[in-house]
Every structure is written in C-alpha cells, then in structure tokens.
C-alpha cells in the first residue's frame, strides 16, 4: 500500500512539472501565438475539463491533508492526474500544430 502513496506523490509532481514546462513554453513562444487569436469555445465544451481540474484540486487538497494515507483517495488522485496529463498533451499537440 505504500507504493500507491509514492505513485500518487509522483503523479502530482509530474503534473506540476509538466504544467511548469507548458508555462515556460507559453512565455518563450508568445510571439508565435499572437496569430492564433481568440479561440471560441462553447460553455458545454469547457465543463468537463473544468470538472476534471476542480476534482484534481479537491483530491490534491484532501490527500495532502490526510497525508496520502487512504488508498482509495490516492488511486482517484492517480487516475485524475493521468487524465489531466493526457488532456494537457492533447491541448499541447493542437496548439503546436496550429503554430506550425
């Protein structure tokens, strides 16, 4: 059961490292992203990524307060972090294809 605790911590750290790398890339290639303009997204298309991010924040706070002791919360956090990483990679590929 301790392995799940370490995997959960690793996934959280990996998510934050990838978020930091995306932020650095966003700042570094700001001039290339000017021509992208405003992306028109409808309200219902944003609800599922928003729920995914809010559940990640909630699970992260809950697991941190409980010090990663509950296996079921750790597994939910791992699955949520994996889904956020996959979603972030999909957004990155779409933006990088649009930049050229």
Structure description:
By secondary structure, this protein is mainly α. Helix content is 79%, strand content 0%. It is built from three helices and no strands. The chain has helices spanning 2-28, 43-65, 71-99. α1 (2-28) runs parallel beside α3 (71-99) and α2 (43-65) crosses α3 (71-99). The longest helix is centred in the last third of the chain and has 29 residues, at 71-99. The protein starts with a helix and ends with a helix. The mean pLDDT is 88.
Concise description?
The chain has three helices and no strands. The chain has helices at 2-28, 43-65, 71-99.
Which SSEs are present, and which pair or pack?
Blueprint: H1 2-28, H2 43-65, H3 71-99
Helix pairs in contact: 1-3, 2-3
What's the shape? elongated
Structural class: mainly alpha
- Give the CA-CA distance, first to last residue: 45 Å
Q: Uncertain regions: pLDDT < 50 for 5+ in a row? A: none
What portion of residues belong to β-strands? under 5%
H/I helix tally: 3
Report the strand count.
Answer: 0
Radius of gyration: 16 Å
Calculate the mean pLDDT score and round it.
88
- Mind describing the biggest β-sheet? none
Core attributes:
100 residues; mainly alpha; 3 helices; single chain
């Amino acid at each position: 059961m301790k392995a799940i605790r370490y995997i959960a911590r690793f996934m959280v750290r990996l998510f934050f490292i990838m978020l930091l790398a995306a932020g650095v890339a966003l700042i570094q290639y700001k001039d290339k992203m000017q021509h992208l303009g405003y992306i028109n997204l409808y309200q219902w298309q944003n609800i599922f990524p928003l729920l995914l991010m809010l559940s990640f924040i909630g699970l992260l706070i809950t697991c941190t307060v409980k010090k990663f002791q509950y296996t079921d919360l750790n597994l939910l956090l791992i699955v949520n972090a994996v889904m956020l990483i996959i979603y972030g990679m999909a957004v990155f590929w779409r933006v990088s294809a649009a930049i050229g």
